[in-house]
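Milestone 3.1: sequence recovery, worked example.
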């Protein structure tokens, strides 16, 4: 009887963990091209944000993806573009603005299915 109960609990745990993983959006923020070990004021960087809908259609529009940054200025961005089924991409052109701050870029999505976030830091 104890073995049967353990088996049921393990199966139930596996199902729940699969559901939780399947309900999150996957965001990935990265630098286009080779990342430098250290940047300087005035350096321009292209940041790529990839958004993968792992739970199919999302009720939250892509334009609702929040971007936060420190120590950099966003000079421009492309529109969201579907690069493969359920995978969208947007590129941002940024410039390092000063030496005395933490430099970061973060993309955040909030939705009822878990959302997602991804962040990249720069050394100056």
């Amino acid at each position: 009887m104890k073995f049967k109960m353990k088996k049921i609990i393990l199966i139930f745990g596996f199902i729940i963990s699969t559901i939780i993983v399947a309900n999150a959006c996957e965001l990935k923020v990265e630098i286009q091209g080779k990342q430098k070990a250290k940047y300087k004021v005035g350096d321009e960087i292209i940041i790529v944000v990839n958004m993968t809908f792992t739970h199919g259609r999302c009720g939250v529009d892509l334009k609702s993806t929040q971007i936060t940054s420190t120590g950099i200025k966003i000079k421009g961005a492309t529109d969201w573009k579907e690069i493969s089924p359920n995978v969208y991409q947007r590129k941002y052109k940024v410039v390092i603005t000063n030496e005395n701050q933490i430099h970061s870029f973060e993309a955040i999505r909030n939705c009822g299915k878990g959302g997602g976030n991804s962040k990249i830091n720069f050394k100056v």
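Helices lie at 2-22. DSSP finds one helix and eight strands in the chain.
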